[in-house]
């Protein structure tokens, strides 16, 4: 398809569809201010310095009809979001006003902006790199505190700086190896290659290790509640939610199909899934409920395995134990067994619930300190994995091949920042944006 032309004037509504207190129409490109001046009654925007706003009226230049009273924001290149001359018309937030203003801008020669095209221009004009542009998208989509924090870290160029630093280290190393290949008598020792590669590889490994937590911070997590019938799974779901979502009875086998409920733990959006109690059964309905429960556990980010502490310990079902938190339920009753690897919880008294929330949070996001950089974008994970593989190969290879592998690792790192990437990559990134961003 090819990237859209960079210089023509584009326009789009930047505020969400529907009524609002204020609505914004964005315009950007060569001649944007002259174009806007033709529908503006007030201080001529072509004469306004950048970074200013002015109050006036928006008029249809054909009929002189007043469309709205508005504020006009003027940005002059390169001091704008896109790096180009840009303007914002801030109108009353009526869909009728916004549509009409946009239509007049199109009649005056602006063209509709494609999804993400303002941010695409910011990237192409060097206002941000590709990883930052992706963070803009993540930030717009962030619906939880964890997702917002995560996206903002990316926006503030943390990742970009780290990748640039790693690349510089590799470039230095490459220069040494090349010198050694050309003039073996004055070059590096192979041991020095290893010493140069290892810290870079370690840092890449560390970044990749943050990917599961990064993904969860961004997209949230699924937690399955699993255990024998009557273990107290539905009661625990209700206790975590703070309202009676699931049916609870003393009859084993109450929950037959699974049930999902959204909640938030320490800013992370979570879908908790209550499942049918797992036991041997010939009841066809219950049997498929049990199969589903085990399947849901396999697919969950975290499993809570509940065992009733007031009853003899049941035989645990097959579960992904490395992702499972063991919970001894009904801790308010006299215990029939003790096992320190279980967290004691009572849905009835609330005992252990806060500790459970903390452990869930820790298991999902790990112990990574606040402010630490996390990878969450699949494209970044994939590129880092390629760099990791290449550098591991470089560690094993003779010098000339090591140089080749390092070059390929460098290419993978450059892709994260969007240096020398194909239009296809750019297209894939910006396709997910909304119009007006
Ligand atoms: N009304 C409005 N609010 C908004 C945006 C916008 O475009 N319009 N933004 C858009 O997403 C975000 C803010 N991001 C922005 C980033 C850079 C520039 C900008 O004009 N930068 C210039 C000047 C900087 C300065 O004056 O210090 C520059 O980088 O040179 C504007 C907005 C969020 N809020
Ligand atoms: N004393 C006490 N009773 C509990 C507690 N949690 C659950 N119960 C009781 O245990 C019984 C079963 O609770 P449920 O939450 O329905 O158990 P479940 O694991 O969902 O059971 P199924 O849906 O049949 O698999 C009910 O009578 C609850 O009142 C608890 O913390 N303390
Ligand atoms: Mg139940």
Automatic annotation (TrEMBL):
PROSITE patterns: G_TRME (PS51709). It comes from the Bacteria. Pfam families: MMR_HSR1 (PF01926), MnmE_helical (PF12631), TrmE_N (PF10396). Gene3D superfamilies: P-loop containing nucleotide triphosphate hydrolases, Probable tRNA modification gtpase trme, domain 1, tRNA modification GTPase MnmE domain 2. Binds 1 potassium ion per subunit. Its EC number is 3.6.-.-. Transmembrane segments: none annotated. (6S)-5-formyl-5,6,7,8-tetrahydrofolate binds at residues 26, 88, 127, 437. Its cofactor is K(+). Its main location: cytoplasm. K(+) binds at residues 230, 249, 251, 254. Keywords: Cytoplasm, GTP-binding, Hydrolase, Magnesium, Metal-binding, Nucleotide-binding, Potassium, tRNA processing. Mg(2+) binds at residues 234, 255. Residues 220-365 form the TrmE-type G domain. InterPro entries: G_TrmE (IPR031168), GTP-bd (IPR006073), GTP-bd_TrmE_N (IPR018948), GTPase_MnmE (IPR004520), MnmE_dom2 (IPR027368), MnmE_helical (IPR025867), P-loop_NTPase (IPR027417), Small_GTP-bd (IPR005225). Exhibits a very high intrinsic GTPase hydrolysis rate. Involved in the addition of a carboxymethylaminomethyl (cmnm) group at the wobble position (U34) of certain tRNAs, forming tRNA-cmnm(5)s(2)U34. Homodimer. Heterotetramer of two MnmE and two MnmG subunits. Belongs to the TRAFAC class TrmE-Era-EngA-EngB-Septin-like GTPase superfamily. TrmE GTPase family. NCBIfam families: mnmE_trmE_thdF, PRK05291.1-3, small_GTP. This is tRNA modification GTPase MnmE. The gene is mnmE.
